[in-house]
Amino acid sequence: MNPNAPIPNPLLPACPHRFGLADPAIERLLKDWLLLAAAFTGTQVALALRDETGVWYLSSSGLAPGQMAALEWTLAGGAPGHPFWILPDQEGALLAMETLPLQDEYGRGIGDLYVLSPTPHALTPDHRAGLRLVVGHVQSILAAGRHQLETRATPRAPAATSFVPGLVHELGSFVFGISANLDAFEARFAGMEDVSRYGATIRKSLDRMNAFIDELRDYGDPQRYSWLETELDALLKGVATYEAAVAREGNLELQCKIEGVLPAIMADEQGLRAAFTHLIHFMLKQEEPGGRVILQVEVRSEGERVDICGHLDGSSTRMKNVDLARLFEPFYFRTSGLGRLTLPVARRVFEYHGGSLTACPGPEGGVRIQFMLPASLPYPLRSAGRP
């Protein structure tokens, strides 16, 4: 035992709820690799997977329940310093000697592999090489089954690759049939009283349905208008200038703060511009006269990875009763001036670019929408596998 280790906390708080993997076969493969890593290193090994909400999956090579609870509690407090101790109430303490980061195929951090031991000791070069192989295999397993990862903290709709395109086709056929019959009806009874008036009402409803089908098509698979090098700095300033008219009309303040110089990114410029426009428009529509919306963007670097990160802050408290974790869920929230799927489509566009889009409480009781875009990708990403 390290005499300088922190004193155990005898009253560990309840551990946060853990989520599992949708495919038991993938989970068995991961556990097999953890057991293999533990066997050839003579240590204990634990795997933690993270998303924007924190640790959502935790497994080990055979830690006791109290040790697992202590590890989970330690990780729930944020990324600990390395190395670090886990100190359960009853079972033996363990030192996390090594932390090996895990990344997805786009270079985004998705978790860590921890090498644990009751006493500090050095790993051999062969051990380290073997652990790197284990990390590579774990990353490959997760990449192959990423569409099956279950993150119930951010509910998702049925898979876009099958359900949504089929629904778009069926609804489109249905609307086309009604429209064709309405054309024939109006031609046949054009001279009858009120035909044109009722026909115009029906066409208005069909137009709304067609607009919804277009949104649904984008939600299922964001449209690829072009994939070119894009100056995000100019794009954001252009969107802010365009939405300034909405701000003036509502007696609102709109600020755009860009820290430093943003690197050019490979992007679908038209889709990304529409997503940012809809987000700023949405935030402005939540404000009362005299309110403000602030867009702040900066570049963040971690090793060789460079991300463009930013947030939109609103001052209004009108959304205090909204479950912000569900804000981008289809049909959960709708506001005037936006379609039924505008916000979910915006998230799909960010995911299509390898980024993310989330909402959380902001300063002074307002709302904050956070986003991230990778600064460089060698090729356009496929559409996100999960809507």
From TrEMBL:
E.C. numbers? 2.7.13.3
Locate the Histidine kinase domain: which residues? 166-377
Q: Which reaction does it catalyse?
A: ATP + protein L-histidine = ADP + protein N-phospho-L-histidine
Report the enzyme's class at the first EC level: transferase
Q: Which UniProt keywords apply?
A: ATP-binding, Kinase, Nucleotide-binding, Transferase
Source domain of life:
Bacteria
Signal peptide segment = none
Q: Which Pfam families is this protein grouped with?
A: HATPase_c (PF02518)
This one is known as: histidine kinase
Q: Which species does this protein come from?
A: Geothrix rubra
Q: What is the lineage of its organism?
A: Bacteria, Pseudomonadati, Acidobacteriota, Holophagae, Holophagales
